[in-house]
Design brief:
- This protein is α/β, with parallel strands linked by helices.
- The chain has two domains: 7-131 and 284-302, Rossmann fold; 133-281, Aspartate/ornithine carbamoyltransferase (Rossmann fold, 3-Layer(aba) Sandwich), CATH 3.40.50.
- The chain has eleven helices and nine strands.
- The chain has helices at residues 12-30, 54-65, 86-94, 110-115, 133-147, 165-176, 205-211, 233-240, 244-248, 270-273, 280-302; strands spanning 43-48, 69-74, 100-105, 121-127, 154-158, 180-184, 200-201, 214-217, 255-257.
- The strands form two sheets. It has a five-stranded parallel sheet with strand order 7-6-5-8-9, sandwiched between helices.
- It is globular, with a radius of gyration of 19 Å.
- The relative contact order is 0.16.
- The protein binds phosphoric acid mono(formamide)ester.
- Phosphoric acid mono(formamide)ester (CP) binds at residues 52-56, 126, 135, 259-261.
- This is Aspartate carbamoyltransferase.
- L-aspartate binds at residues 82, 165, 219.
- Pfam families: OTCace, OTCace_N.
């Protein structure tokens, strides 16, 4: 496999290999070794057409930890604003002898499109409401780390499923690893196709939380929706937000996840997000090891 375009193009053996490789890099980093010389002859361009904090910084850090040469591109400060196309932008960057492109783009399928037009290895860092494969990998890896495995675990993904690339990639990854997955959120934010993926829909948050071992709380993707068909934020929080009172009323302690950025007080309160039940910052930490593993494994195909 030369590209990472989505979880749906992978197999369980690929996920197992990525996790084993991430285990190795995590162990190396835990010994305060800041850099390994693995990718000294590789140049990577991080090309971001959408805002990002976690994904962009952890890709850059992962690349630097592997000793790759790194260049960063933000559409907002580039000649895209003068009308340059995606293909022209990337071809110009590739002519500087770039081996791998990490691409975030608002359009679903942007990475797939690019992989058909350029010779570099493409890593999808989020394409519209389609997939965010490295997020799903680090999410599943974090569940594996906290609970000792993913197979047989019950995971509910809560919130704006309709516009979420995190939800779709998580569904693919978690099912591949043998977890049971439910989704929970308002009807207006639930895609019609979701049940065809083998996922059960639960509209009642309490019932979903009583069922699960892990709740992955998603943000409302304001930037991808027409707010006229959405419940108000106050209604949303009342029905689909989690707080300490709700969690303490369950008869077990579930693991709380969030891909970030968090809207504190909307989908999750601070006392939950910052509690021992939450593995939100573990997810961010694991993002570096997972992205090191992905880049290392893909680079072995282009060397
Ligand atoms: N989880 C995630 O993709 O965060 P960023 O948008 O900050 O990269």
């Amino acid at each position: 496999v030369k590209h990472l375009l989505g979880i749906k193009y992978l197999q369980k053996s690929d996920l197992d290999l990525i996790f084993e490789t991430a285990d190795h890099f995590k162990e190396v980093l835990s010994r305060s070794i800041k850099k390994v010389p693995s990718l000294r002859d590789i140049t990577i361009a991080n090309i971001f057409f959408e805002n990002s904090t976690r994904t962009r910084l952890s890709f850059e850090l992962a690349e630097k930890r592997l000793s790759a040469d790194v260049i960063n591109f933000s559409a907002g400060q580039s000649s895209v604003r003068k009308g340059e196309t995606l293909i022209d932008t990337v071809n110009n960057i590739l002519s500087m002898k770039v081996d791998m492109v990490v691409l975030r783009h608002p359009n679903a399928g942007a990475g797939i499109f690019l992989s058909n037009h350029v010779s570099a290895s493409i890593v999808n860092a989020g394409d519209g409401a389609h997939e965010h494969p490295t997020q799903a990998l680090l999410d599943a890896y974090s569940i594996r780390e906290r609970l000792g495995g993913v197979g047989g675990r019950k995971v509910v993904i809560v919130g704006d499923i309709l516009h979420s690339r995190v939800a779709l990639s998580n569904i693919f990854a978690l099912q591949m690893l043998g977890a049971e997955v439910k989704v929970c959120g308002p009807k207006t934010l639930m895609p019609k196709y979701v049940e065809s993926l083998g996922v059960q829909v639960e509209y009642n948050l309490r019932k979903a939380l009583e069922w699960c071992d892990v709740a992955n709380m998603l943000r409302i993707q304001n930037e991808r929706m027409d707010m006229s068909y959405f419940p108000t934020l106050r209604e949303y929080t009342k029905q689909y937000g989690i707080d300490r009172v709700l969690l303490d009323s369950l008869d077990k302690e579930i693991v709380i996840m969030h891909p970030g950025p968090i809207n504190r007080g909307v989908e999750i309160t601070s006392d939950v997000a910052d509690s021992d039940q939450s593995i939100i910052l573990n997810q961010v930490e694991n993002g570096v090891a997972i992205r090191m593993a992905v880049i290392y494994l893909l680079a072995s195909k282009i060397k």
